[in-house]
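Structure in, sequence out. Go:
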């Protein structure tokens, strides 16, 4: 029997991972945060002080790395980098701003795509990312493309950081998000692109719960 895979792609700050996580919980299936995998490899490259322009070194690093995503009932997704829990460490600004080097390297993406397909073949799941509907799981049972106005995506990020008690440089955050959009859309391999058969959800005027409910209804139809 074919394993059920549901994918949620879209730009940074659209709420993909919160929505994918919520939908996975509602359906009682696993959650796969593919951005976390790119982030974990970036963290390892930073720790090893690799030159991010050195693509062969990044590819070698990917081949010598083991990244796992652990779903435990009632707990946040755990991201393991060579067995170490890096779930918090991969959310730093430094990691966020350097992930594009790893994400733009074609042979690193090939390694990531293989890992993601392996994870997707193990059990039913909801995954979120940029290229899941177009490249990783072209035959996914449900493909969603989650979008929102740029200003709203910025505001959500600002609110999220403030809620965590972090100081926010709003102008820098807006610039970083615009930068990430540009890099995501223009990447030669695995760019952010709506799959032809994806269902587009514009969450600009929706709450997270409304988005999750909307996706859930599609899946349960
Ligand atoms: O979703 P996120 O912000 O955690 O993603 C982190 C980075 O990884 C982002 O720069 C885009 C990249 N990414 C990617 O290239 N392909 C994916 N499937 C998921 C994320």
């Amino acid at each position: 029997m074919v394993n059920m895979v549901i994918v949620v792609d879209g730009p940074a700050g659209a709420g993909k991972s919160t929505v994918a996580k919520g939908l996975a919980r509602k359906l009682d299936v696993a959650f796969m945060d593919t951005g976390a995998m790119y982030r974990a490899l970036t963290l390892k490259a930073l720790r090893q002080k690799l030159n991010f322009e050195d693509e062969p070194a990044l590819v070698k690093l990917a081949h010598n790395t083991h990244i796992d995503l652990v779903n435990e009932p009632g707990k946040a997704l755990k991201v393991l980098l060579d067995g170490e829990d890096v779930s918090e460490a991969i959310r730093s600004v430094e990691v966020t701003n350097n992930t594009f080097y790893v994400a733009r390297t074609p042979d690193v993406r090939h390694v990531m795509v293989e890992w993601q397909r392996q994870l997707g073949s193990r059990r039913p799941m909801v995954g979120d990312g940029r290229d899941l509907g177009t490249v990783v799981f072209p035959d996914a049972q449900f493909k969603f493309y989650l979008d929102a106005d740029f200003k709203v995506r910025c505001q959500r990020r600002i609110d999220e950081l403030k809620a965590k008690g972090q100081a926010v440089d709003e102008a820098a955050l807006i610039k970083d998000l615009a930068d990430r959009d540009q890099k995501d859309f223009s990447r030669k391999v695995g760019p952010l692109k709506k799959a032809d058969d994806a269902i587009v959800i514009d969450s600009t005027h929706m709450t997270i719960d409304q988005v999750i409910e909307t996706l859930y209804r599609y899946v349960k139809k």
